[in-house]
Amino acid sequence: MTKKRPTRRYDRREFLGLGAGLSATALLAACGGGGATNNPSVQNQSGGTFGTGDTYDGPKVELDFWNGFTGGDGPFMQKLIGDFQAENDNIAVKMNTVEWETYYQKVPAAVQVGKGPDIGIMHIDQLPTNAARNVIVPLDDLATALDLTKDDFSPEVWDAGIYNDARYGVPLDVHPLAFFYNKTTMEKGGLDPNKPPQTKDELTSALEQLKSQDIQGMWISPFLFTGGFMWMTVTWQNGGDLYNSDATSAAFNSEQGVSALEWLVSLSEDGYSPRNVAQDAENIAFMDGRNAFVWNGVWNINPYDDAENLDWGVARIPRIGQQDATWGGSHNFVIMNKPEQDTNKLEASKVFISWVSQHSADWAKAGQVPARQSVQESQAFKQLGPQSIVASQLPDVHFQPPVPGIGDAVPILEAAVGDAVLLKSSPEDALAKAEQQVNQLLEENAEKYGS
User: Fold this and answer.
1) Cβ(414)–Cβ(226) under 8 Å?
2) Which candidate, 230, 227, 231, places its Cα nearest to that of 275?
3) CA-closest candidate to residue 292, choices 181, 195, 201
4) Domain regions of the chain by residue span
5) What is the mean pLDDT of residues 63-68?
6) What's the pLDDT tens digit per position in 79-137?
7) Measured between alpha carbons, how far is 11 from 14 in angstroms, rounded to an integer?
8) Neighbours of 379 (CB within 10 A)
9) Which CATH architecture describes the domain 176-328+405-448?
């Protein structure tokens, strides 16, 4: 069967919610005040409000469910909702989707005026900010009611949902970077299309071979998608970090961070990449067969699978540094703060979240890795070959620290990577400038959020 190229690709705007899209100022304007919630209805969730999570026997309710699944993932979630409602005819789920950038502005404003949804999805990087602003409520009792424990999740994604010793998100998935390779381009360049490089030396050798055949094998983007994520990944692989232990100051202007950025720059300087790669150009070139390798998110599985004449594979991110590591994100279920929580809706919300979590192998078809290990071990998930390969990286995934407003630093990091990759600044100078800006931002956020 001939496959048609998808008319819509995932792009940077869709993923601004991963940390770069919502300013602290916008949240403060929408939901004043910080610290732990004082909403008595939230405090009353303890003592069995959430029940067992198995069934809902109350009167028919309609749950407003908001998220940013406006791309190819939306129909997969809509199908899950349909399957859920077929089994639970007394729970209607109304899904409302908007672009993530708009979502993270719209939700706090709606909650502030008492018109927020019942359930939402938030990226794991956004949980602390929205928790600090009282947009979402703690879910420890919900996790207990659903018998969700750290043993059934990768520790990294489980722990990243905790802010101020309280859980604010129920992890649905993890979406790490992965190493995609174009088999046709590899073969054209004289490489074995079934042996993707997995070390720095192997990658350099492969790029040299491709270069000898006039193929620039791995285009380096100066944007967050994907150059910024590549730099973060290699910084962690080098044993470095972006922030100190409590995220009160920047730590990326280090030997490890500079070395990672120097490696990125060298790929252009050595002719393995064009000098000025436009937004998403590396991805388009990969699909067109003009380069062989891209580091991109697991969410690209379906667009690549649908692309015409694209013979591709996926592997773990190559180890450029001394240890395995990769950038990752995660979608989490959240429950919104309301002046008066409806007990029936809370009970129905619990059943819905539990059901989708248990059926997240179907959600994985949208190009995700289920957060639950029990689902990852299921036959239904193992049949999804590419997702299973990417899932092997979960112990190596790094998230942003659980600090309110931490996403505001992402555009600064993106600019530093861009300046270096575009040869406007040396890696040392770019990171030194970014360090000053990020430290000032962290200090301002500490005052703003009461941290």
Assistant:
1) no
2) 227
3) 181
4) 12-172+330-358, 176-328+405-448
5) 98
6) 999 999 999 999 999 999 999 999 999 999 999 999 999 999 999 999 999 999 999 99
7) 6
8) 7
9) 3-Layer(aba) Sandwich (3.40)
Closest CA to 413 of 232, 219, 176, 240: 232
Same fold flag, 12-172+330-358 and 176-328+405-448: yes
From residue 89, give the alpha-carbon distance in Å to each of 84, 120, 283, 333, 348: 9, 21, 43, 22, 11
Distance CA 117, CA 408 (A): 25
Question: Is 391 in contact with 364 (CB distance < 8 Å)?
Answer: no
Phi, psi of 418 (to 5 degrees): -60, -45
* Segment (H or E) for 346: helix 343-358
What would the pLDDT profile of 6-32 be if each residue is shown by its tens digit? Answer: 333 344 444 444 443 333 333 333 333
DSSP 369-415: EESBHHHHTSHHHHTSHHHHHHHTTGGGEE---S-TTGGGGHHHHHH
Q: What 3-state DSSP class applies to 222?
A: coil
Q: For the chain, what's the residue count?
A: 451
For residue 406, the one-letter residue type is I
Residues 6+ apart with CB under 8 A from 93: 62, 63, 65, 81, 84, 85, 352
Which CATH code for domain 12-172+330-358? 3.40.190.10
Q: What is the DSSP letter of 220?
A: P
